[in-house]
């Protein structure tokens, strides 16, 4: 798949400076650019590489003026970084634009799908599944009974979507993700044995939710586990039953959220964070990596530690943590001096 400088400039609303017909077929870092590749320059620290790069085309800001000879063709735009990101999105869309049903695959009764549909080999669509337009389902995907999938959704190879789940428009579900497995619900009897509590709810992903590889989102015991629009989940995250995550919250890898916890909008949660069940976390909360959250959190708090403290308080306390051996020695010396003074009396 090749694109000329003129075609790329048209996509980005940019201006070509150099050979408008030169073509590229791959992407590269500016310092590793080679013939036929496209790169970009956004960080001034990398400016020197534009004079040595062998990339055929380089996206730059409009105010960039070379002070020595260059061989690469320039495409000048308002914001090189944003334009390159836009191009990556366009490239991904073109790359994943497969259409048709591969064989073998299984399609159950009363299944409906829209235009531009792709179903990869060895995938399984159960009964009463409803799928929108331009949905791409890659090989070895399982979709259970009565699942609804909106428009422009991508489900990568090996993902599993259990029955009754609802997937909104523009969602991306990566390989190995499991949507709608049973919540962790068991009740002990008088013998100390556990009986399973039926998990009869579902999972709802609103529009433009991204689910990372190996992430699991459990169905509700009753009602729904809900990820509101724009939520972004990294790889290997556990979302328990009846959790609700607010709009545009982003969560990094290996975080675990216990049942029935409510998380607000625009939160940022670092990797390996542990959050207990049945609490409420406000809007715009920031939680540093490896923190443990065991209480309700108000809007706009920034937290670190386990159990988590206010971020500023944690950093002040950490100064003392590092100096504990010195402080202990100092206290021991003071005690010896006091004891020595008392012995002289």
Descriptive account of the structure:
The termini are far apart. The strands form six sheets. Strands 8-11-14-17-20-25-28-31-34-37-39-40 form a twelve-stranded mixed beta sheet. Strands 9-12-15-18-21-26-29-32-35-38 form a ten-stranded parallel beta sheet, with no helix packed on it. A hairpin with a 5-residue loop joins strand 22 and strand 23. With 345 residues, it is of the alpha/beta class.
Fold blueprint:
Blueprint: E1 3-4, H1 5-12, E2 15-17, E3 23-24, E4 26-27, E5 37-40, E6 57-61, E7 73-77, H2 80-95, E8 100-101, E9 106-107, E10 112-113, E11 118-119, E12 124-125, E13 130-131, E14 136-137, E15 142-143, E16 148-149, E17 154-155, E18 160-161, E19 166-167, E20 172-173, E21 178-181, E22 186-188, E23 194-196, E24 202-205, E25 210-211, E26 216-218, E27 224-227, E28 232-233, E29 238-239, E30 244-245, E31 250-251, E32 256-257, E33 262-263, E34 268-269, E35 274-275, E36 280-281, E37 286-287, E38 292-293, E39 302-305, E40 308-310, H3 311-322, H4 324-343
Parallel strand pairs: 4-5, 5-6, 6-7, 8-11, 9-12, 10-13, 11-14, 12-15, 13-16, 14-17, 15-18, 16-19, 17-20, 18-21, 19-24, 20-25, 21-26, 24-27, 25-28, 26-29, 27-30, 28-31, 29-32, 30-33, 31-34, 32-35, 33-36, 34-37, 35-38, 37-39
Antiparallel strand pairs: 1-3, 2-7, 22-23, 39-40
Family: Belongs to the transferase hexapeptide repeat family. LpxD subfamily.
Subunit structure: Homotrimer.
Protein name: UDP-3-O-acylglucosamine N-acyltransferase
